[in-house]
Amino acid sequence: MSRLPACQTLLLELHNGVLHITLNRPECRNAMSLQMVAELRAVLAAVRADREVRALVLGGAGGHFCAGGDIKDMANARAQGADAYRDLNRAFGALLEEAQHVPQVLISVLQGAVLGGGLGLACVSDVTLADHNAQFGLPETSLGLLPAQIAPFVVQRIGLTQARRLALTAARFDGIEARRLGLVHFVEQDAQALAERLDGVLAHVLCCAPEANARTKKLLLASAGQPSGALLDEAAQWFSEAVTGAEGTEGTLAFMHKRKPSWAPE
User: Fold this and answer.
1) Cβ distance 11 to 22 under 8 Å?
2) Which domains does the chain have, with CATH numbers?
3) Is the model's pTM score more than 0.85?
4) Are 40 and 94 in contact (CB under 8 A)?
């Protein structure tokens, strides 16, 4: 059995071949900090070759899944210059690539905020369960930024037409709409129903041979095509240019000061 890394931003519980990973920064709706990204990547690396770990269940503490990237990290990066923004952004893309390809079945349980990077994590999950009131969205362009690492995975998940609409309007939508779009597989009315649905999905997963599942997942992903590393590298550069430009500066400051940015109508 794998030795799991010590984590400060994640809660880990391994039981009967299922590793439950809980994003644990409830004070900021589990916004994705650089530390959380690094810890998630370390956990995925630790279990990658372990076929005794059959499934990974990703959820969030405090009634939310993930509200996207941590604005404080971006503020800290500002002092370090454009390269820091590019590296910060690309690290999250690497997490998405690694989560996409982890051999285990990755199941996400989505409640509350599922925004930006949180939506990206949902898009690389094999099975997604959502509360009907969960709030999904790609808010980046409303902040003067780009969903740089997320967009290719969203397109792959729900198609270009819907991805364009959601990314270019920053529209919010609920779990019922997420199911209609094909982003999630099951929508439930409350936490108890979500837990029961998760138990049912895990029962089916555990009926499948672990190595057969790992190879089948690899085959399916290869058949569908993948967002390329070169594209994500270029997108990280675009993100850096956006966040250090006039719009990114205004958008992130407006968010932090809880006001509308200059381009938004009153």
Assistant:
1) yes
2) 1-190+207-266 (3.90.226.10)
3) yes
4) no
Q: Is the dihedral of CA 47, 50, 52, 54 positive or negative?
A: positive
Cα–Cα distance, 110 to 90 (Å, whole number): 24
Over the stretch 30-60, which tens digit does the pLDDT of each residue have?
Answer: 999 999 999 999 999 999 999 999 999 999 9
Q: Are 158 and 164 in contact (CB under 8 A)?
A: no
